[in-house]
Amino acid sequence: MRIVWRGGETTELKVLLPVNAVAALPRYGEMEQQVLALARAGFDDAEIARQLTAEGHRSPRCAIVFPSTVQRIRLQHRLKLPPKQTRWAKMPGRLSVPEVAAHLGVTTNWVSSRIYRGVIRVERDTVSGRHLFADTPATLVALRQLQAGTVKRLDFTKDHHEQEGHQDA
């Protein structure tokens, strides 16, 4: 848009007209290729949206690119993001309930239910409250014995005193 003021001075402004769809944007093809390249490189939708906005791209009715716009483009191409890290980071030398379940080929419910019923005794992490097992071959062997039914109970606590009928790991 160009404004001519009294006296002959002019001011030029760039006015972004709203469009009805993302594909109707003037630089849509370029934006689409950038979204796909960045998504394949491992960037999440919010990061991609910030970068596209910095490069002058926009959403259909706004001067910025929204993460939902990026997501829509990405999903049109059936490009899914890798899953984010879970709530807690992996602790070296320790196995969480889902990790134990994966090693045994059972559900997390199988492990958790045995913990809550007292069949498996294991201490909780003081920070996160998670049940954590020692990441040792002996732990997995003991858990496999429980799974096979050759032992009735497991006690992985530091100060366990009952050893009758229990497997020590």
Radius of gyration: 29 Å
Spatial shape: rod-shaped
Strand fraction band?
A: 5-15%
Q: Order of strands side by side in the largest beta sheet? A: 4-6-7
**Residue-averaged pLDDT, rounded?**
85
Task: Give a written overview of the molecule.
The C terminus is likely disordered. This protein has six helices and seven strands, in the order ββαααβααββαββ. The protein is an alpha/beta fold. It has a three-stranded parallel β-sheet. Strands 1-2 form a two-stranded antiparallel ribbon. It has a two-stranded antiparallel sheet with strand order 3-5.
Précis, in short:
The chain has 169 residues and is an alpha/beta fold. It folds into two domains: 2-76, no CATH class; 94-168, Orthogonal Bundle (Multidrug-efflux Transporter Regulator, Chain: A, Domain 2). 37% of the residues lie in helices and 12% in strands.
Topology summary:
Blueprint (H helix, E strand, L loop, with lengths): L1 E3 L5 E3 L15 H13 L4 H10 L12 H10 L17 E3 H8 L3 H9 L3 E2 L10 E3 L2 H12 L4 E3 L10 E3 L1
Parallel strand pairs: 4-6, 6-7
Antiparallel strand pairs: 1-2, 3-5
Helix pairs in contact: 1-2, 2-3, 4-5
Which characteristics define this entry?
6 helices, alpha/beta, two-stranded antiparallel ribbon, disordered C terminus, Multidrug-efflux Transporter Regulator, Chain: A, Domain 2, 3-stranded parallel beta sheet, 2 domains, 169 residues, rod-shaped
